């Protein structure tokens, strides 16, 4: 297997980026980035532990759930989850994060890179109250790089095209997969039922 080891070797395969791909990168949010955040219900968060172990975790809520506190800071509420805390534990030793925001039906995405902190400031958490429930914490990110990402990946994958959607019954249920992967003794249907009940009770 031939493996690329250096940036010089890499550039023998790939052309230099076009000028607009470089010029589009900003150091703070502009009006278009603000508007994108206000419409986005979903973000993927990439982080890396000090040891080098990488992780990508999803966050989702109603459009605009990630708030821009100003042109240089965004805040992401943390709702109840599985409590693995992969992202948050990474941040304690390596605060660098990459955020990829999506809007259903839109092929372009918004990328924000920066340095994150975990906050339990009461006033900040109050901004994200939902039906009387506060988030467990809020991740604030100091923006260092922000830019729109082109549509090619979504065009190739046809991610938003209903004709490309899988028939869900053609794939095992989450409970069935979890039973196999975790070696659980419960019936898959019971696991699915338990998960559905937990989702209702702990969504917020």
UniProtKB/TrEMBL annotation:
This is Pyridoxamine 5'-phosphate oxidase family protein. Pfam families: PNPOx_N (PF01243). SUPFAM superfamilies: FMN-binding split barrel (SSF50475). InterPro entries: Pyridox_Oxase_FMN-dep (IPR024029), Pyridox_Oxase_N (IPR011576), Split_barrel_FMN-bd (IPR012349). Residues 29-150 form the Pyridoxamine 5'-phosphate oxidase N-terminal domain. NCBIfam families: PPOX_FMN_DR2398. Transmembrane segments: none annotated. The lineage of its organism: Bacteria, Pseudomonadati, Pseudomonadota, Alphaproteobacteria, Hyphomicrobiales. It comes from Tianweitania aestuarii.
């Amino acid at each position: 297997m031939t493996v690329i080891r250096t940036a010089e070797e890499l550039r023998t395969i790939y052309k230099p980026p076009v000028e607009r791909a470089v010029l589009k990168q900003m150091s703070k949010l502009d009006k278009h980035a603000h508007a994108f955040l206000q419409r986005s219900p979903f973000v993927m968060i990439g982080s890396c532990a000090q040891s080098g172990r990488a992780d990508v975790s999803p966050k989702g809520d109603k459009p605009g759930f990630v708030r821009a506190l100003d042109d240089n800071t965004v805040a992401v509420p943390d709702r109840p989850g599985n409590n693995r805390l992969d992202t948050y534990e990474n941040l304690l030793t390596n605060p660098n994060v990459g955020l990829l925001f999506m809007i259903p039906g839109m092929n372009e995405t918004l990328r924000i890179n920066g340095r994150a902190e975990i906050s339990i400031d009461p006033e900040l958490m109050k901004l994200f109250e939902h039906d009387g429930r506060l988030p467990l914490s809020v991740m604030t990110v100091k923006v260092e790089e922000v830019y729109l990402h082109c549509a090619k990946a979504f065009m190739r994958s046809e991610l938003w095209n209903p004709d490309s959607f899988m028939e869900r019954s053609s794939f095992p249920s989450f409970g069935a997969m979890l039973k196999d992967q975790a070696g659980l003794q419960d019936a898959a249907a019971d696991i699915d039922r338990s998960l559905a009940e937990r989702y209702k009770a702990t969504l917020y």
